[in-house]
Amino acid sequence: MRMGDWSLGGGTIHCDGRQRGSAVILATQNIGPEPPGLVLATAAHVLFDLEAGRLFEHCSFHYLGLDALPGYQAEIDLSTASLGRFNPDEPLESWQFGQQDWAFLHVPASIPAAGHGMRIRPVAWDALVQNSDSGIPARLLAWSVRHSAISLSVDCHAAESRPGDLGGGTWPGQLLDDCDSGQGASGGGLLATLGQEVVLVGIRTGSHWDASIYPTARFPDGPPPGARWDVMSNTNFARAIDGGLISALRAFLIRLQQDRSG
């Protein structure tokens, strides 16, 4: 995706009548056969009714989060979805929480506004990191409650979790970032630059915080807006793009092609 188009590569996911989170439109031409419509990356938990512990029955993609304009929404084919082994009953304190929180989705119908110049290529995180302890400059493409639109958080950084921080370095590819975000950002894209291209390096999945500093009784929704970011007390986290996810995406694209030809 060209530098100037990076904020046009996403939208929101609505399931059973409710806005659930964000998604990124993927550029897949160098990974596998390209299907008609759109291919999306998001967090698996966006597709679950977490109270009932089951997948939603109907979900749609709203390009740029625009709900009122005709021609900006289309149904997601959940029957073909490729999801990580996300378990909605897994406790938040589980050491591997978030590792399987990813999904690839297909929107078969055309959304005319989402032209070919607004797709983001997924690239393995390791391709960008070269002996960097402090991480890399990043941006988050996701729904913004404050702006009531898909927006781009800038001037932030992402680094892989290590032992001793809130993520504990408990699974490879757990990225911690300080990109400004709020409710509805789950499933959004952690972006970085590779040469002159903006690429997808992670899928936003949630936040970690120290309950002794932000006790549930006072902060039922976690740290308040503007709370200081610190990997030891309050941080966002994402599931990095890696070789395993690239392979899963390739298998997803091949399956979509086989379904069409079969």
What does this entry show, briefly?
The protein is mainly β.
Key descriptive features of the protein:
2 domains, single chain, mainly beta, Thrombin, subunit H, six-stranded antiparallel beta barrel, 1 helix, 262 residues, globular
Can you describe what's shown?
This protein is mostly beta strands and 262 residues long. The chain has two domains: 3-119 and 243-261, Trypsin-like serine proteases (Thrombin, subunit H, Beta Barrel), CATH 2.40.10.10; 121-240, Thrombin, subunit H. Helix content is 7%, strand content 35%. It is globular and about 55 Å long. The two termini are 32 Å apart. The relative contact order is 0.21.
Give me the secondary-structure topology.
Blueprint: E1 10-15, E2 18-25, E3 38-42, E4 48-49, E5 54-55, E6 59-63, E7 73-75, E8 82-83, E9 103-107, E10 121-122, E11 136-144, E12 149-160, E13 174-177, E14 189-194, E15 197-209, E16 234-240, H1 243-261
CA radius of gyration: 17 Å
At CATH level 3, the topology of the largest domain is Thrombin, subunit H
Give the CATH H-level superfamily of the largest domain.
Trypsin-like serine proteases
Q: What spatial order of strands do you see in the largest sheet? A: 7-6-1-2-3-9-8
By oligomeric state, this entry counts as single chain
Helical segment count: 1
Provide mean pLDDT, rounded.
Answer: 87
Q: Helix-strand pattern, N to C?
A: EEEEEEEEEEEEEEEEH
**Binned strand content:** 25-35%
Largest sheet: 7 strands, antiparallel
**What's the number of structural domains?**
2
- The computed structural class is mainly beta
Q: State the shape.
A: globular
